[in-house]
Prior knowledge:
The complex is a heterodimer. By secondary structure, chain A is an alpha/beta fold. Chain A has 8 helices and 11 strands. In chain A, strands 2-1-3-4-5 form a 5-stranded parallel sheet, with helices on both faces. In chain A, strands 6-7-8-9 form a 4-stranded antiparallel sheet. In chain A, strands 10-11 form a two-stranded antiparallel ribbon. Chain B folds into 3 domains: about 15-205, no CATH class; about 205-310, Orthogonal Bundle (Helix Hairpins), CATH 1.10.287; about 315-474, Heat Shock Protein 90 (2-Layer Sandwich). In chain B, the strands form 4 sheets. Chain B has a 5-stranded antiparallel sheet with strand order 4-3-7-6-5, with helices on one face. A 5-stranded mixed sheet of chain B has the order 9-11-12-14-13. A two-stranded antiparallel ribbon of chain B has the order 1-2. The longest helix of chain B has about 50 residues, at about 220-270. The chains are: A alpha/beta, B alpha+beta. Chains A and B meet through helix 1 and helix 5 of A and helix 5, helix 6, helix 7, strand 9 and helix 8 of B.
Amino acid sequence: MRVLIVEDDPLIGDAVRRGLTGGGFAADLVGTTDAARSALHAETFDLVICDIGLPKEDGLQLVRSLRKQGTSIPVLILTARDGLADRVDALDIGADDYLTKPFQIPELLARARALIRRSNAVTSSDLTLGSLRLELAHKRATVADQALDLTHREWSILECLMLSAGRIVSKDRLMSAISGWDEEITPNAIEVYVSRLRNKLGDAAQVRAVRGMGYRIDEPTDRGG
Amino acid sequence: MNPRTEAVDEETAPSIRGRLLVLLLLPAIAILTLGTLTDYLTSGAPFRDAYDQALLDSALAIADHVRRDADGNPLLVLPPEALSLLRKDKYDSIYFKVTTRDGRYVAGDRDLPDLARHSATTSRGNAHYRDEPIRLVSYTPKNGSGSVTITVGETLRKRDRVRATILSTSLAVDLGEFGVILAMILLGVRIAMNPLHEVEAQIEKRSPKDLSALSVTTVPVEIRSVVQTLNRLFATVRATSEAQRRFIESAAHQLRTPLTGICAQLELMSNEERDSALRQRLLAVLDGARHLTRTTQQLLTLARSEEAAHLHWERVAVDLPRLVEEVVTERLASADIAGIDLGAQIEPATVQGVEWLLAEALGNLVNNAIAYTPRGGIVTVDCGQKDGMPYLRVTDTGVGIPPAERARVMERFFRASNTLGTGSGLGLAIVHEVAQLHRARMSIDEGPGGKGVSIEILFPTSVSVAPGASATNA
């Protein structure tokens, strides 16, 4: 998977490039929006990571022109922590996510993976997380090409978690995702389904409970997290 | 403004209201006094003439009764009834005397004073008779009875009475007029001063931190330039704040960017380093760099929260559950590393606030809780409402804060005596400042079972933000 980094600060740019390379991505670094445009024109990328504060033209301008051209490539914006207006602007313009400086490399990798996963799901209707793969069209889940035997409700919960991989999904949302199958779903029932799902997934993925908030699916901690 | 003008102003104008009153009242009093005096003086002449005329009539009547005896000497022939009628008056004593032209007594009151002799037929004047001032009128017929002069006099009681009546009446009327004018001037001055008082009140009720311009449209023309000068001053102060804000923002960028790069590079280097001794050193440097980054961020947050208090930062409806979710999600990784069970307990609540400052405050509370709670501990972030008052609360099972130090930990750079590690002592100061900015109360208590700390930010009662309703409560 190939990522274009648009960042004018050499120290940050280099760290992001190295971090991404270490995380299994192919990464290219440019320092201006013009250079980014020619790179995007010449090559195919799966993700753009773009700083807002760039010389000559800011990163939001690049996102705006990309979206104007109808390009749907996912964009992760890097912003200053207190630039709330920038963040709102970025999402309004069509950026897919933002990360505030200072950030940590593992967080950046997790966001990058999640964005690529989401955009792949749209284009190929497949969701992957490490060795776990969901074929949405066929409602089929595999781990290392071995099919998992899931009930309807387990599938629905897994799909719901995978669509927001790396983020917390509330119990309410999981309940509404499976309520089509059963009218009387209690929060306790969700715990039971999640526990069964964990057993079936084994080491392929980690479903962790966040007390009071919900569940989050991640790659196993020994890989890039 | 030159100092001379100032000195003069201080001397002569302690109060515009006082000046107006003096300047209006003194002429009013003078004019009224003059009016009373004129009334009194001019009303004297007509009634004096009328009474004199009455005396003259008596003299004429007496003249009709002057005859001449055989020797040609004048002689008054007047029946006693007529005489008593002539002398009869309700208030005054009436005297008369008939003399020849050369002063020889003919009839009447012999010692009644004579008027100075004029060539005129009639003359009048004042004199003194029987210990009383009197008025005298004399008549000297030109022909007929010939060489006699009839002098008629009367005391002044009647005239004094009339004079007193006229004086008291005009005094009463003029005093009444004066009262009305005084009332009108007092009322007028008061009404005229109203716009000034309004401007004064407008300035007085402003928060000292309010730097917005005063409205000029409702201000009287006379002090418009004063208000405009004030507004220019406000604008200057605003511009200074704005310049400070830009400075802080640029400083934020200048500091944050290299620190982000340094931290990221150190992180990667420590991951890649196989030599464990070197790796430990890199991790220690990374720790220092992160601490520096955090402190920089906290200082900037403090500076900007002060500025947020000065300038009117736009407050929006902040959904506390969403805020908690965001902050907890961001801190999950560090909680995992520290072996802390980070969780939440979320009930719906909304506050009007500056979102990033609230996020920063809550983030600081969670960071603190994670930092001061031993491995295996529990950190819970709550939000919800108590009696209609929204709250945010972070509870941990950590080392706690000694009760005596709970007030002081909200001060900048104060660190509780039982803390280890590399805190900046700014975290809770930021939380406190952000709470104050939102008129919220920050309280520090023990956690459940007397362990750890529970820190709560209790916001003032807010109008629940229903769809379409606008919450004005800040």
